[in-house]
Design goal:
Structural class: alpha+beta
Number of strands: 18
CATH topology of the largest domain: Alpha-Beta Plaits
Strand content: 25-35%
CATH class of the largest domain: Alpha Beta
Distance between the termini: 57 Å
Shape: globular
Strand order of the largest sheet: 1-2-5-6-9-7
Order of helices and strands: HHEEEEEEHEEEHHEEEEEEHEEEH
Helix content: 25-40%
Amino acid sequence: MKTTQDNRTHRLAGTALAALLAVSASSAFAAAALDAKLIGEASGATPTTSPDGVVKITWARNDVRVTVDGMPLPPAAGLGSWAAFAPMADGTAMVMGDTVVFEDEVDAAMDAAFANGLSVSALHNHFLYDAPKVFFMHIGGEGKPDALASAVKAVWAAIKSVRSAHASPASGFGGETPQPGSIDATAVSNILGQKAADTNGVVKVTINRDGSMHDMPIGGSMGLTTWAAFSGSDALSAIDGDFIMTADEVQPVLHALRKGGIHVVALHTHMTGEKPTFYFTHFWAKGKTADLAHAFRAALDTQAAVKKS
């Protein structure tokens, strides 16, 4: 039978252990605390540190005048790029951020993010009736704090390079405009390995996917599809479409699209409560129909490889 002294000893031991764990946790957090100065030097921006240890850098986009619904919008009202760095237990850091991009900056910013090891988790708009059109690209990553800060700097530098070359955002991607003509649907089908349908000169491929929402099965007829439409002629057409992806497929598909010269124009969700969670990226490109089909096929193959792994 345990004596009163035994119980007191166990209580004291438990208290001592809890105190030791608290000290250890505190020490681990202190060891992982981020060096704001280092992040500032690597990013070229002035850092601030919040009470929870997160280091943040910002960049107000005051280089382009923006109006929303006819009203001039100051940067403080929602035209700020930022990146926040949080310490991780192993001494590395996590970065999350939101980057203001005009239409002609998206490719450069996304390519710079990928080239420097960052992921892109969203691309969307925040306003209506804005001029010029403003988009927001969300980025993330994990690694050494100074390497992450340098990566963010590279993304912002890519944007600044676009603006240095042209002060005003462009109104188009450039190049020739596809004209109505004939597209060989059979050739597209052969390249993609999917049946292509011709509707009034538009050749389209649709690939269904299955999921569930609120315990109810849903599929392609409810919008769970990847699709691509080709408009124009075999010599010069435009491709636009939508890719449905699970979380682990997003980055590989985006990389494949950009490698194929396809412009990513949006990345977001379409639903809430679905299982698994699906993400959608919309895209656009111009060129020879066969070249566009091969680029789209490469993204499909990349996605399929992820699904098998």
